[in-house]
């Protein structure tokens, strides 16, 4: 049955194992550092890597993992469908760049061209939408295309797309091999954009509240460690992320890991955008979906 | 000749349905077979010989009439009446000896008894040293002999043979015909044999049923009064040849050209 | 005598492959990172072998493959032998099989995760689905097409039930079942990768996804080559097994 | 007479499927959002039909399928007829084919995107790969196994070259080629979904991925059913075509 | 009998390799065939009859010696010498008429001429009304007649037949044998015929070559001096029968049981 494999069972003497899903991207670095530093005591942490968001969501929805660092919009979709999830922290702030090929000098140049995003429901799509609007263009002026992130640098290099907007380090890859350049950083378009968040199953939060708190304490701490973006952080991250240091350094330059609290006004802006773009009719409200109690206690 | 009736076919008819057309294949067939007899059913291709044999063996149910084996209606195939198929029907995945043992496995015999009986009948057909080989390693003639051994091993009251030697060359055919007569005499088996070879029928049989087609009927029954073994070039043999051939020619008026027997 | 010739052919074939590959890169002028040349892939393979990654992933994949394939084969042959003898029941179940068969096992993955969780099971289940239908359908049709003569002989010798299946139907149908097994090995191995690309955390398919996500296309290519080679060996192994059984059972 | 029986069987089969499906939900107590019941899927199908989505996606998929399948079939038969008559060349190329065949077409997707871009091409290429090898291999083996008697007759009548291929080899090999075509339809349709899950913006595979991403598992199930039904119909259509050709050419 | 030599086989030998063993199949075969003759090659299964015929037709190259057709070495199969195969070799995807036209398509004929010629020979074999049917709709005997028409349509100098009537039942066989003699007389074709049926050989041939196996040699050549058409039950016919049978028995000392011809 559903949830059978939920690992976090509360048997007394054995330490429970928390399973958290992730994709190998720069946005999940705090998770990597938390596991590497292994400061927690009340539980075992198992990070489960997935090949794509779709598979990660399936696992999360069916209770095969207790939580995940994932695109917030996808979690909101699940919530809307009746899966009990809570967003408890951000995965990162900023750190999404709009990469284009070297011939594109402004938004106007993108008109009529193909532009890749990982997902219709991603914050990247919203960023693209706002960017176009801010430059006096319509969303329909570019042809937005969903592509697996790993294919984007190749597609850009081969001239199949004019640009892309996706999680790191895939933006940095193109910049590092001189096949692309940064047209905009996300904070220029939408300050306080919410992208990847740490999501936990409500079931887990209710049954193992203390453990959840401990997990969150060290998550916040790991975020602060990550914010140093030093050699140490790079080493720990590279256990999960197989990229050159040059790419990673670029990636780190654009991102921030301090203050991982989800702010209500940012969230409102997100839901407004979703409704405005017609991507979601009834996005869950801030109260329903965001649970800041852990991060607030951790501070 | 022993005068116990073993097979008794009574007013038997059979038709097949073909695309909602009813094709009468056998009509009102009646005959008796005595214990120890060799009877041939002779007829052209498609006249219903195989169908008749299948009905006698219980493989096909007649539409009308009945077949009695020792006075009891035949409703299903059974071990007392073994059919030999034209393509020999040996199981390619079993060695020669295990093929012969196949029918014995249903009897209450120990493995040793089974093996002994199989070897006895393999010896009878002259293949005692081939028991461990596989059928595909045998020539056509040898395969047919294995089939005969397999049938005999069950000591059936009746053996049905459907064109048993049609696939063999003349020399092997002659040889196996002699073998069959020798074994038949030794075991006193009753045999019903389907063939389209006039010589074969005359050479082997005590009686010949001549079938005519559309629908299949037994047109004539001929007693062969020659002593066995017979001489194919003897005048009497030629008499029967000519006689039977005339029977068939009579039935084929559509043939423009004269046959020269 | 025939082995050297095959070996020469294989070597010649591989040589052609490498030349075409390298030529494509030179003519197309592709970036190394996007379309790695043979040499770099060779290095990739060596590094994967050296750190044991390749072997570990292969082992995981292979065990999953065995689990999925063997359980599918056993169940499918068992059901096939029964259903082949029950034309009425098969008449009803056949449409269901026909409906499910054309669906890519990967399409089921949301439900597979729901029922079987994550880890080894999804890949095993996908391989199971991929092998089950070819074997079931070929078993049913093999059983239906068992030579009438054999069935008549069995009737004549008064064989019934389990004895009939064991002594006549199964051995007579086996060459066609074996053919189904052979096809199923190919299909299942192909879907192994697809299966492991979805929801697995190890195995050759995962190796490819992970290398892709890390933008290491040389390792992707290495994984592809390795899957090709091991699929080929697996196919040959099943072929040998088929021949061996056929020989043992006195077939050509 | 036989059509009503088949219809009854199909209806009975579907009924069983629905009952088992509903029973699974009742017994397992699954969340509706995770394992939608038949009724909800039925509604999903209706809504997809009503707003035309289903038809649009089906059309896209079907055209891609035709493009990939037909081009693969033409090329594979053409090459197969040549290679079947050139045993030495085939000896060298065969290992390459054998090596590439067991690789899931999906594994190539990074390279497919590199070479063929995005849009329709990746799905078409994946279908092409999935159909190409079964047809090539069955054509080569059909050509190799053309009845010696026919070849002797051709020799005797002094037929050569193109005439020989056109009048003897192709028609003699056709039933086996057709069998390969039939198998290839199944395989290609299965990979259509997988192909459209990667990088496509439309089509039945995309419909499934998209529904999955929107957490609409009822639509996923609707897509699966639709893929099953249309795959089944496609298979039957190829079967009819096969029969028609065989009848036209005087075979059973 | 016309005395122009058409086929001349000289000191011809052939062996096959089987698993690195060399199996001599034909050894030192020499014979001539005259124009218009019907010659039978008679021998047991496996004695090399088919191989010999294949070599004469140019389908197989001999190891030693040569085959001359009209004085020229035969190196490849060609239209002047047509082989009829035991399984008839009709193309199932062509209608009867198109099968007959197959050989004509290589000649410089218009479609109309081709069709006329095909219909002429179909009429000769009594199948002029079956031209638009497919081979599978024909009986075995009809299929063999189509094969004969196809061969004749090319007006070859020589027809080779490999056990042409072996698959037919006795009645059809007799009928086709008569047909063959009639057509042969009308067209004056030279025929070499392989068979394992003594009666068939005597009934059809001007000369019979008797082959013995291991390796295949022509053991004896027999001129049949009977006028055609022949009577199978005539004393002279029986004389040849007995004579030929003794030839074979002589060669099979391993047979324990006496044959009764
Ligand atoms: N199962 C069947 N269904 C329909 N028709 C059948 C069936 N079995 C036989 N027939 C038809 O019945 C007729 C007699 O067939 P049968 O096989 O008994 O002939 P036969 O005398 O044995 O011929 P042959 O010498 O060619 O074996 C044929 O016309 C055949 O087509
Ligand atoms: N291509 C071949 N390769 C190897 N051996 C062969 C080949 N063709 C024939 N033989 C062998 O040569 C011998 C003579 O064969 P052939 O077919 O000429 O005999 P046959 O007299 O026509 O027999 P049958 O009456 O059975 O047709 C047999 O032992 C056969 O196994
Ligand atoms: Mg019959
Ligand atoms: Mg021969």
UniProtKB/TrEMBL annotation, chains B, E:
Main subcellular location of this protein, as a coarse class: membrane
Bilayer disposition of the protein: Peripheral membrane protein
Compartments where located: Cell membrane
Listed SMART domains: AAA
Domain of life: Bacteria
Positions of the ABC transporter domain: 7-238
Family annotation (InterPro entries): AAA+_ATPase, ABC_transporter-like_ATP-bd, ABC_transporter-like_CS, ABC_transporter_ATP-bind, P-loop_NTPase
Example of a GO cellular component annotation carried by this entry: plasma membrane
Keyword field: ATP-binding, Cell membrane, Membrane, Nucleotide-binding, Transport
Molecular function as annotated in GO: ATP binding; ATP hydrolysis activity
CDD domains, sorted: ABC_NrtD_SsuB_transporters (cd03293)
Name of protein: NitT/TauT family transport system ATP-binding protein
Organism listed in the record: Alteribacillus iranensis
From TrEMBL, chains C, D:
Main localization (coarse): membrane
CDD domains: TM_PBP2
Any single Gene Ontology cellular-component annotation: plasma membrane
Keyword Transport set for record: yes
Keywords: Cell membrane, Membrane, Transmembrane, Transmembrane helix, Transport
Any coiled-coil regions, as ranges: none
Membrane topology value: Multi-pass membrane protein
Localization per record: Cell membrane
Pfam annotation, one family: BPD_transp_1
GO biological process: alkanesulfonate transmembrane transport
Matching InterPro entries: MetI-like (IPR000515), MetI-like_sf (IPR035906)
Keyword Transport: yes
Gene3D superfamilies, sorted: MetI-like
Domain ABC transmembrane type-1: from-to ranges: 58-238
Spans traversing the lipid bilayer: 7-30, 62-84, 96-118, 124-143, 164-183, 216-234
Signal peptide: none
Family matches, as PROSITE patterns: ABC_TM1 (PS50928)
Family classification: Belongs to the binding-protein-dependent transport system permease family.
Protein's recorded name: NitT/TauT family transport system permease protein
Native source organism of the sequence: Alteribacillus iranensis
